[in-house]
Amino acid sequence: MYLNTSSSSSSSNSSSSNDDEHIFEIIINLPRPWTFRNRFNPLENYDDLDFKTRFRLTKNTFMMLLNAVGTDLKHCTSRNFAIIPEIQLLIALRYYATGAFQAVLGDHIQVHKSTVCRIVKRVSKRLACLRPFFINMPKNQNEKQEVLIGFYQTHNFLGIQSPNSDIGEQFRNRKGYFSFNEQAVCNSKIEIMNIVARWPGSVHDSTVFDNSLLRAQFINNEYNGCFLLGDGGYPCRSYLMTPLLNPTTNSEKKYQKAQIGTRNVIERVFGVLKRRFPVLSVGIRTQPKTALTTIVATAVLYNILLKLNDEMPLNEQLLDNNLLEELPLLPVRQIGNVVRNDTIETYFS
């Protein structure tokens, strides 16, 4: 009798090899060990100058901001080394100041990039909730008069990366890149008084305004005696003064000069805002909803820093000249031409 030992040996080796591969697959798919790293605290490790350069505000302003939102950012537990409000706010401010990848920000503070993502969303929501306290249109006649006088003394006038979804093309603007279309109103002190941040870049300026609460308020004469100034992308209305297509008379030329000079204040606001928080320039790498919250949060911070006289870091360019590009006049019925012509003849002749 003969035994087929070669076949048995081959079968045994094959089974052993399969077992080894299975064990190896289990090992490589095991979750990585959960490690806690010593977190870097920029508030303790940077002096005043370096801190302001990296976070766009002073330590005193940071502490004031922390007092305003810190309670809402505090975790209800101390388990698993929960991140304290101080570090959460620093992570969000660093994101606003650089627009860097979340993994890079995480490496700076020694936290995971997914943690950075959640913190940016959380802090942005809390800062955006401060909007009613820091972004407001004039509420009474004295405040309206202050705005009017400010503009008169100045110019003698009266008054993103592509979203990863099927709706990406909605965010492509007229210049060909992806963005949001934000509407803002400011006063002569370059303070933001109203902001609308919810429309994709493909939506026209006039559509944003026509669907805003601000338009309804002007139609209801809540700001009677006041004008809004807009560029050629807006239709002329009885409460919205736009530039003339071809000024010829001296009165029209005076109006055109005053209108453009006064309106450039809002262009300067956008320039300062984008330089103060470069995340608005380099692209917001978050979900669209979080990106819109981030825009409002940076607008709130912008006004807070203005009120506290927290100036821009040194050697910063304040104005992006590309923002001064003139838009062509909107080819729609300009129903406010009568009011605009009357204004020109009454105040600029």
UniProtKB/TrEMBL annotation:
UniProt keyword terms in alphabetical order: Cytoplasm, Hydrolase, Metal-binding, Nuclease, Nucleus
Location of the DDE Tnp4 domain: 160-303
GO terms, molecular function: hydrolase activity; metal ion binding; nuclease activity
Predominant place of localization: cytoplasm
Coiled-coil residues: none
One Gene Ontology cellular component annotation held by this UniProt entry: nucleus
Compartments reported by the entry: Cytoplasm; Nucleus
Cross-referenced InterPro entries: HARBI1-like (IPR045249), HARBI1_animal (IPR026103), HARBI1_dom (IPR027806)
Family statement drawn from the similarity comment of this UniProt entry: Belongs to the HARBI1 family.
Protein name in UniProt: Putative nuclease HARBI1
Naturally occurring in which organism (per UniProt): Aphis glycines (Soybean aphid)
